[in-house]
């Protein structure tokens, strides 16, 4: 078992110069362009007790807005109302973002400080959305860097021949029925999708 950094580092060569130097303290033109093309990101956060959470967020490409080289805004869309991410950000103010673009194997990682904004001047940035957010996550960028393509290449994430049929899994309704030991009949996949579409 690995217990020390020395033990860990003994197993790996040192990082290459480019891997170290590519880390920026701001969003340059390439990072900003990447964000405008991204319809999906994962927001990672932790609470004050160190419990972690990773939450998917999606929208039309560019739904995350870049204000300047050090600031971006993530609108909070309607979800399950657990508010795990938002609660974590209130407690620690720390956030990590991973942006993806369909068909592109590179990803963009952004780390920084976050706060929750509900002022009209901030919310008005998203007034054209089908469902304007109640809260916007403001991220002050501390680290930004493009991540190499290896992970997505290994996964062949965008290969249409590897896409699975939804029927290979039980419906979400069935899985929740089993997990929660519910007695009622589970919601069908079609009914769930239709219900979701009403609140997108």
From TrEMBL:
Gene3D superfamilies for the chain: Electron Transport, Fmn-binding Protein, Chain A (2.30.110.10)
Pfam families: PNPOx_N
UniProt-listed InterPro entries: Pyridox_Oxase_FMN-dep, Pyridox_Oxase_N, Split_barrel_FMN-bd
Domain of life: Bacteria
Organism whose genome encodes this protein: Catalinimonas alkaloidigena
Name of this protein: Pyridoxamine 5'-phosphate oxidase N-terminal domain-containing protein
Domain Pyridoxamine 5'-phosphate oxidase N-terminal: 28-148
Spans through the membrane: none
PANTHER family listed in its UniProt record: FAD-BINDING, PUTATIVE (AFU_ORTHOLOGUE AFUA_6G07600)-RELATED (PTHR42815)
